[in-house]
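ok so for the tutorial part 2 we go from a plain amino acid sequence to predicted structure tokens. step 1 is just haveing the sequence, like this:
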Amino acid sequence: MKLKKLVLTGAAGRLGSYLREPLAAMCDELVSTDLVDDIGTLYAGERYAKADLASYDQIFPLLEGADMVIHFGAIVDEKPFEELLGPNFIGSYNIWEAAHQHGVRRVVYASSIHAVGMHKKADFIGIDAPHKPDTFYGLAKCFTEDLGSMYWDKRQLESVHLRILSAAQVNNSRALGSWLSYDDLIQLVTRAIDTPSVGFAVIYGVSNNDRCPVDNAKASFLGYRPKDNAEEFAEKVLAEEGPVDITDPGQMCHGGPFAKVDLGQSGLAQMNVVDDKKTT
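step 2 — the prediction. this is what the tokens look like for a chain of 280 residues:
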């Protein structure tokens, strides 16, 4: 399926860096956008536009003529509410409202496990689990999921909300269940784009891990069939990490370190995320 135009927000981020090339191949024109001055070498059919998600006037013209928006732009950590308000809350509204005004068909949104991060991993929650955010960051994901649901119900703007667990190198025991490989990320986004009809949909972004703690059965209509499995890293990770504290909410809850930090305090600071951004 060759689309006319796609818009990718957060294109300068780590996950965005892996999406640019496959998205460019799916459309005649890919508009990549972020806050950096220069995104580097562009792929065939790609152009870059610097824009602030919190500014409707900057976002609105970028969506003109777009078939779909792949919305990955945001502050990707816990921060004080006031810092997240512009990019993570107002930014989502600006994307959905601009998409509606331009007649865009669908938004594919990088939601997060942190929308349900205070649920216990032992509960094996499905896509219909009630919101239970672990942070202001997770609250922004809840807000945007509800925004997408409302725009579908009231304005027939489709959206797929990808509750990504952890798309980063497997270097801790939590990631043995939560890992989303970059190849599976690309497949997940592709299925969110090429499924003929989605309405409002939620799906967990996670690979085919033996220890996967969530249930995607009710999202099977999207056709996402992950291939990678974090178990290949288990022996090394478990030997290095040793026993865990079973009273620690960071170990017991889906949100991991985000479930234990104080509101407004960085969750990423508690994690060893490797910046392996793809370079063109």
